[in-house]
Amino acid sequence: MLLFCSYILSFMISTYKESFLYQLMLLRSMKIIVCGKGGSGKSTVAALMAKMMAERGHKVLVVDTDESNYGLHRHLGLELPPDLLKFFDGKKGLFQRMRDDKTLFPSGWSIDEIPVDYLSQKDGISLLAVGKIHEFGEGCACPMGSLARQLLESLTLGPGEIVIVDTEAGIEHLGRGVEKGSDIILVVLDPSYESIALSKKIVEMGEGLGKPVYLFLNKADREVEEAMRKELDSARLVGTLPMDSGLFQAGLKGEEIKEVPEGLERLAGILGGK
After folding, report:
1. Cα–Cα distance, 56 to 22 (Å, whole number)
2. pTM across the whole model
3. Cα 272 to the chain's mean position, in Å?
4. Nearest Cα residue to 183 out of 152, 147, 139, 227
5. Residue 6 lies in a domain
6. Residue 89 domain boundaries
């Protein structure tokens, strides 16, 4: 009898693993914040992650919340889309809506409901730019932070949909509460004291928010990685990318990153990669 029950249980598990429901469970949806010190390689890592997850069959939305970065779209091989801020009639229109309605997305948005005129798309990747500083003296970037925070909180994802948010340098986005709508915070570090110190502050703030925080070492060979591990919580490390001449040339020339380097497998697993 015990043998028969074991056989039935094995059959049920096997059948379940072949079912559509099980396949959907494997397709995790997630909102990932990519942050770190200026020059650490946030945009490069964000672009690599987007390409890696798209190649694995995920629908990927990259949200550019860095008002001063004009290079992320080129890493993705895309045109820079119009600022989403324009959808709300610019800074003045955004402030007026927030005063009147309190929320910008009363019914929420899915990825498919984002106005296509504000997206740049290619190979399973969509790019959305919250807003950029375009003119001298136009004012601070606070409206972009408010828009980014409400967008992430209101965005609903379907199975297998991944949102990757490239933030501005430092931790102002944490002060603005952008991370509230995220699932994971990924800190990109370069080999510097400033980067290590900032990552510890982000871990502290992320823990206070109740969000898992992971660390990714960039521009780090084996010797540098070993030295950095001594200064960090190694249990949070999800990947290391050594200095790569191809990535360096792409960054220097503002070219699309064509190939995803090896060594990102663990990161893909953390993010729900298949």
Report:
1. 17
2. 0.84
3. 13
4. 152
5. no
6. 27-270
Contact 82, 117 (CB under 8 A): yes
Helix (H, G, I), strand (E, B) or coil at 82: coil
Which CATH number goes with the domain that contains 70? 3.40.50.300
pLDDT in tens, 98-144: 777 667 887 889 999 999 999 999 999 999 999 888 888 777 778 88
Residue 8, Cβ neighbours under 10 Å: how many? 10
Number of structural domains the chain divides into: 1
Cα 184 from Cα 238, distance rounded (Å): 12
Q: Find all residues with CB under 8 Å of 255, minimum gap 6, and list them.
A: 74, 75, 249
Q: Is 237 inside any structural domain?
A: yes
Kindly state whether residue 5 falls inside one of the protein's structural domains: no
Owner of token pair 């009147």: 100
Give yes or no for a contact between 74 and 168, defined as CB atoms under 8 angstroms apart. no
- Strands of the chain (E only): list them: 30-36, 59-64, 109-110, 120-122, 125-129, 155-156, 161-166, 184-189, 213-218, 237-241
Q: Is residue 251 part of a domain?
A: yes
Identify any residues that bridge with 62 across adjacent strands, giving them in sequence order: 127, 164
213 contacts 203 by C-beta, under 8 angstroms = yes
